[in-house]
Amino acid sequence: MYSKLKNYLADELKKIQSAGLYKKERIIVSPQDAVIKLEDGKEVLNFCSNNYLGLSSHPALIKAAEKGLKTHGYGMSSVRFICGTTNLHKTLEKKIAEFFGMDDSILYAACFDANGGLFEPLLTSEDAIISDSLNHASIIDGVRLCKAQRYRFANSDMNELEEKLKKAQSQRFRIIVTDGVFSMDGNIAPVDEICRMAEKYDALVLVDESHSAGVIGKTGRGVSEFFDLHGRIDLITGTLGKAFGGAIGGFTTGHKEIIEMLRQRSRPYLFSNSLPPMIAQAGITMFDMMSETNELQDKLHDNTGYFRKKLEQAGFDIKPTRSAIVPIMLYDARLSQEFAARLLDEGIYVIGFYYPVVPHGQARVRVQLSAAHTREHLDKALDAFIKIGRELEVLH
To answer: What does the alpha-carbon distance between residue 48 and residue 318 come to, in Å, rounded to a whole number?
Structure first.
């Protein structure tokens, strides 16, 4: 049988390559930082990492991880409810809940698991999920695993959301689900309006803060802080793999009864190994740092504002964004790949995104800013973007 599958896969891979859609991985041989070293020895400026606060190689987190390794070992070799729960896991869950102003939290191996394991334990065919059209794949997969009625509204379209909420009134429970910041466009969801809709039509609100926690809001507490929505968002999912240290691990935080039910019935939690203790220890240290100073958030916001303004002045087509994600629209898939390859020659590491990651005809180079970037880093990248933009006739 495999010979038949092998031939089919080989043909499909050739089609992907001929269409210019084949994804190649570049190999890094250094710690994640603003400057990274590639396998060929070349050092480049990194503008495509989720390392928004520059914490991925922070000495304090490395020291904390080493401490966790020494006190609690390398791995737990167990799921949480058997013998996989340590004091570090419970402390980190408490820190997360306190940071977001919630009752309790539950840890997962990744936010993909948090979203994948959230809906099925809480909702049945009597209920409704109303989801933004640009929500992350993990939300989409989590919704598919649940028997609740599904409604989809166009990205941040409040008129269409209201239509779906009206249709969902016949269901028992309703939950509106949205990303806080949409990873490809960088736009912030209008969660203030979503909460008003939820209150009007008696629905819960779930926000995935993976690209917004640590990034937006004065102290990095995400959309709830950005829109001053404390107490109005029911559930938040997020990750420790982006702004919060860049390692691994996800979480759900919210009302205590919901979190307790997830502990009882959420399959990715029940059947996946616990987070390694060193990750939990570093996470605790990270949230302590986040509560002590806004220095990194302030630096990130300054970098993002400066970079976006300079690109707009140069004439690039940029999607409107108030996050640390700056999408430079090129529309053509091949052009996005060539643009990224030319930038790498200039010492700037970015990636071109194209279908199926973004819709057909919406190819782009996505820039992600970090608090680790210096003004010199930003200026070097800007010079390279303008140079390549002119060479490829993106700028005139």
So the answer is: 16
pTM of the model as a whole: 0.94
Q: pLDDT per residue over 158-172, tens digit each?
A: 999 999 999 999 999
Q: Exactly one of 58, 89, 136, 242 is catalytic; which is it?
A: 242
Catalytic (active site) residue 18:
no
Catalytic residue among 183, 212, 224, 336: 183
211 is catalytic: yes
Which DSSP letter does residue 161 get?
Answer: H
20-49+294-391: which CATH topology? Aspartate Aminotransferase, domain 1 (3.90.1150)
Q: Count CA within 13 A, CB hemisphere, residue 162.
A: 7
Q: State what percent of residues in the chain have pLDDT above 90.
A: 91
Give Cβ neighbours of residue 35 (< 8 Å, ≥ 6 apart).
43, 44, 45, 46, 377
Q: Which residues of 248-274 are buried (b: 16+ CB within 10 A; e: fewer)?
A: ebbbbbbeeebbeebeeebebbbebeb
Cross-strand pairs, 176 = 130, 205
Identify whether the C-beta of residue 280 lies closer than 8 Å to the C-beta of residue 89: yes
Question: From the CA atom positions of the chain, what is the Rg in Å?
Answer: 22
Catalytic pick from 211, 301, 373, 377?
A: 211
Q: Is 242 a catalytic residue?
A: yes
Domain 59-292, CATH number (from 3.40.640.10, 2.40.30.40, 3.40.462.20, 3.30.1240.10): 3.40.640.10
